[in-house]
Design a protein that fits this description.
Blueprint (H helix, E strand, L loop, with lengths): L5 E6 L5 H16 L4 E6 H5 L1 H17 L1 H10 L8 H7 L3 H11 L3 E4 L2 H12 L7 E4 L16 E4 L2 H9 L7 E3 L14 H8 L7 E5 L9 H9 L6 E5 L4 H11 L6 E4 L5 H6 L3 E4 L3 H9 L4 E4 L5 H11 L3 E4 L2 H13 L3 H9 L8 H32 L1
Parallel strand pairs: 1-2, 1-3, 3-4, 4-5, 5-6, 7-8, 7-10, 8-9, 10-11, 11-12
């Protein structure tokens, strides 16, 4: 198998999932070959910094304040044709810049963890401006046209659900690998739960509930939910992660001063794997990164108001797999939490066991291996085509 020398990963900073998938694959690639040159590029920031800032601001605020509007946009674009005017315009976004970057960097393979650069790569290949293998990681358990492009050589997906969705959209089965969604190794390493509890000062005989506000603290109604859980008569200790939202963290800390139950409040932290390791239940949205990490940690999920679009599809997949329950109101969040904790944890144990039927613990390394195989297959195909052309010209 030819040895990879340079890998280009095209990502974006819209939420944490796309970037974390890129980082996880880079870590796996470098673990296999420390001499490998792996370049992660924030694509939209590279090709259009101003547009990136505006689009990122609009995205974060739409999912926080008007998620229904984001859902309408997601649904409206979910089945657009690759030849549609909108898709052609998106495929031109950074077209010249990426073509020049490929000529300068000369990667052996390109991996996209965000849909926009995946479309641009496909368009470049269609125009014959690059022959570099183009691969894509779909970072949700959802199917959307923005990820699907005719000249993408291979897809790495999180589940059979996504694989069958791609096949239904016309992608050949041999161009799809079910690898799981790549996450950091910290979530795959057995944790010393007793040591973590001691470090954090957690009670050893209390059930633990982890409330995740998201990287930007956008979990709907998190203040009201925390207020109710803090005053619940059901015995539990609560860990609340507020992400980068400093105002939210201050509000939750103020609420915790009068809590009946023990409370720990965090801002943005790289130690989420430790918090998940000592938790019995996580209350969260249904972002691809968080749910993949929770699955890896065998952690049951209570999902609340997933963002319409990819998160609602993620939620449907998890509920069908019996690893999560869905609360449609604040009242249901409290009721479900108390019910799951009061029954001695028997349902939580079943949900935890069910995670083993769908979780993938080798995703990053499987994708790293897959990139080499795609590059090798592309090289062989190119050599065969050149040989056929050579003999055709001699006739």
């Amino acid at each position: 198998m030819p040895k990879l020398e340079r890998v280009l990963i095209l990502s974006a900073s819209y939420g944490e999932g796309h970037q974390q998938a890129a980082l996880a694959v880079r870590e796996a690639l470098l673990e296999d070959d420390p001499a490998l040159d792996v370049n992660i590029v924030d694509y939209l920031k590279m090709v259009h910094p101003m547009l990136n800032s505006v689009a990122r601001y609009c995205y974060l605020n739409s999912v926080r304040f008007v998620p229904a509007l984001y859902g309408l946009f997601y649904k409206g674009t979910s089945r657009i044709s690759p030849s549609s005017l909108l898709q052609r315009r998106l495929n031109h976004l950074g077209f010249d810049e990426l073509a020049e970057f490929l000529m300068d960097y000369k990667p052996d393979v390109v991996l996209s963890t965000f849909p926009t650069p995946a479309g641009v790569m496909s368009f470049l290949k269609e125009r014959g401006l690059t022959s570099v293998p183009a691969t894509t990681i779909i970072t949700d358990h959802a199917i959307h046209s923005q990820w699907i492009h005719p000249f993408t050589d291979h897809y790495f997906v999180g589940s059979e659900h996504v694989k069958f969705g791609l096949i239904g959209r016309g992608i050949p089965e041999d161009r799809i690998s079910i690898t799981g969604i790549p996450i950091r190794p910290a979530f795959l390493t057995p944790a010393n739960k007793a040591a973590i509890r001691a470090k954090l000062g957690l009670e050893t005989d209390f059930p633990t509930v982890l409330v995740m506000g998201g990287a930007y603290g956008v979990l709907s109604d998190i203040i009201q939910i925390c207020e109710s859980l803090f005053q619940s008569n059901t015995r539990a200790q609560l860990i609340v992660v507020c992400g980068r939202n400093k105002r939210l963290r201050h509000q939750i800390e103020q609420l915790s001063l009068d809590a009946k139950n023990p409370v720990w409040v965090f801002g943005f932290t790289r130690e989420v794997h430790e918090l998940m390791a000592v938790s019995d239940l996580i209350i969260t949205k249904a972002g691809g990164l968080t749910i993949s990490e929770a699955l890896a940690m065998e952690l049951p999920m209570l999902l609340y108001r997933p963002i319409p679009g990819q998160e609602t599809q993620n939620a449907a997949f998890l509920i069908k797999s019996r690893v999560a329950v869905l609360a449609r109101s604040r009242k249901h969040v409290i009721e479900y939490t108390e019910r799951l904790l009061r029954d001695g944890g028997s349902r939580l144990k079943k949900m935890r066991a069910n995670t083993n039927t769908i979780r993938k613990t080798t995703a990053a390394h499987d994708i790293a291996k897959g990139l080499s195989e795609v590059e090798e297959q592309t090289s062989i195909s190119a050599e065969l085509a050149a040989t056929k052309q050579f003999f055709a010209n001699r006739r």
